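Quick entry, no commentary yet.
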Amino acid sequence: MIRAYTFRLYPTVRQAQSLGEMLRDHASLYNGALQERRDAYRHVSKTSVKYGQQSAQLKDIRAFDPERQGRWSFSSQQATLRRLDKAFAAFFRRIKAGEAPGYPRFRNARRFDTVDFPKDGDGCRWESTPHDAQNRVRFQGVGHVKVKQHRPVIGKVKTVSVKREGRRWYVVLTADRAQPEPLPATGAAVGIDMGIASLLTTSGGTHIDNPRHGRKAAKKLEAAQQALARCERRSKRRRKAVERVAALHRKVRRQRLDHAHKTALDLVRDHDVIAHEDLKIRSMSRTPVPKPDPEMPGGFLPNGAAAKAGLNRSIADAGWGVFLAILTAKAEGAGRDVIAVDPRNTSRTCPECGHVAKENRPTQDTFHCQACDHTAHADTVGASNVLRAGLARRQAAPA
């Protein structure tokens, strides 16, 4: 089982400068490889350049520019070229699927924030020590950088990445570890209904509040973004304003992650089976299609875009996708079952008689069955139906 660990780096001033130069030079390599692919397709009879061809040129590139390219790890440069290759693979996949293509773009050195090392010991070295001791990680061309390791790394380290967030630096490790012992069985199962008013509601009637971290920080973000808009481009003041906006976004993201981890851990500890809705979040947060006005050329009819934009912000602020990903990972490590079920009509189906009707949910919070007069909270009814569908799917699955 592969698990990721993220630790804060504390480089010296000189090391931070070298790390910045490493990102700059990898961005230059990425952009050069992208330009080569563009030129080959445009000018040489639409010829495609593959990763293997560009990787074979690395030796000559490093010899030609030893100061900027020759000083860094060969394998990390291969990883950067693979990153570009994956971007093109995703581009062609989207074209084939009829989606918006999104052609790979050139990367500004300030926006190129990650360098990957595919193998521990090849251009980098994670020095394993007890987690309460002073740890360091070594990068070729940088040296031994101090690490704040807040938990032990279990298993064999496979890959290492260095990441920049604002003025902070992080090391991201992936470790291959044996399957841990499952948690003791509780004999309990639960269904959860994801929402906005409450982050989730369980089939037992428990409501987990939605902290709405993004909404709480909205005024500060608005003021910071307005201050950014007033700054002159490429000025020192603008650079500080950009860092301020990024810091506020980073705080919201961390708060959201912290809440998701704690909520998922409670569910995993208390239940053997967790059923949830298989939400298509990207489709749910899609912007409405414009409606041309037939009586006014160039005009459009109202399509509810403003209201939908507010709903989309609330969906993004709830962080359903992040929570479900964390829940699935924690359940896998604890030996729990997580089952995704079809969310259609889960809040319109009566759990007592099975009657399905739109009228069963007269308001957002209320469920009132038109057939048997059963009344309950709509989210609790939805969670109960999710649990029932999840248990049925679990029993129907082949052993």
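second:
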Amino acid sequence: MTSTITAPGTGASAEAPAPLPPPRAPLGAQTWRECGYLLSSWPLDLIAFCYVLAWIYAGVLLSVTVIGLPVLALGLLGCRRFGAWERARARALLKLRIDEPSPLSGARRGAGFFGWVWAGLKDPVGWRTALFFVVRLPWTTLTCWVTCAALFVAWPALPWLARWMTNVDRALVRGLLSPSDELERRIAELESDRVTVTDTASADLRRIERDLHDGAQARLVALAMGLGMAKEKLTEDPAAAARMVDEAHGEVKLALRELRDLARGIHPAILTDRGLGPALSAVASRCTVPVRVTVETAARPAPAIEGIAYFTASELLQNVSKHSGAAHASVDVWRTETRLMLQVMDDGRGGADATAGSGLAGLAERLAAVDGLLAVHSPPGGPTTVTAELPWRERTSPAADASEPEPEGAPR
């Protein structure tokens, strides 16, 4: 629709010009981020390139002395730092999803100075990062000048140029600065799992030592003292000596019971002799709620896997007794092609959470140490289902260290 206006003093009418469209940015935000990345890459790469050259030069010159190798190892740590900065820039400006590589392998937990140096010299992440800055400097020199020229001469083509050039940068970052493959991430996971297993074993040893010191050992000391006093009174007061011997007999039975419980907590004889089915049935008989046990495996797994499955079920049934308020529970064990599955269910109040720092979190860590998984489904109001998944490993030979039967005549 066209409007007309009358010019003052003439009476003539003229057409009014159409309103101009609102201004808009010719380039998108992502293009500006890519341009910022291209323009800032050259000075940063020049600094990193000079660092790499100076480090290698110093390392080669000093390699004939005792400080040459530590200098090379320290230089690789610096390369790792430059690589971390470059990954952060790529994530912020290029929106590139890239993981951090695994920490320096072998330089942990008391490896010593020479172990640290050797681990640093073998670090593939540091060497790939050094190669990245050596290779990329000529490219960033070119892209920096092309970007500057496009900004002033051919800016309509800048979005396409920026996207094409940053795609090359994305490929370089992925190829040389990202974790090399799944193996590297797997190494980091295994190192973390090894720490978990070591800490768990140390905690178990401390528990056993504490139980022996505070339980059976204390009772045996009291037993020795009681028998010594009875020996002294044997001729003077036979009746008092008989009472002391009777008390010592009671202490012997209590000490044996505590030793049996402690041995059961380390590795029960019934598990070694008869396998998961009877061992889990024995555990279920001590639970405060009725438990149905079903074990469907044609063969027995490796002793380590069998032991982890047993103690996992034992701890889950203890949780059922202490916290669930259930009326019934069940334990099911079966084998898939390559996994051993264990499932404990109860009809209790629910609300169990493996992420709240409970015993379930510790179970999940122990299972993860052997490539296992723990899944918890416990809505408020129940029921609760906890499924443990372990790798199936074949038993190579029958257990040769079966526990000996209890000798006849032991105190009852």
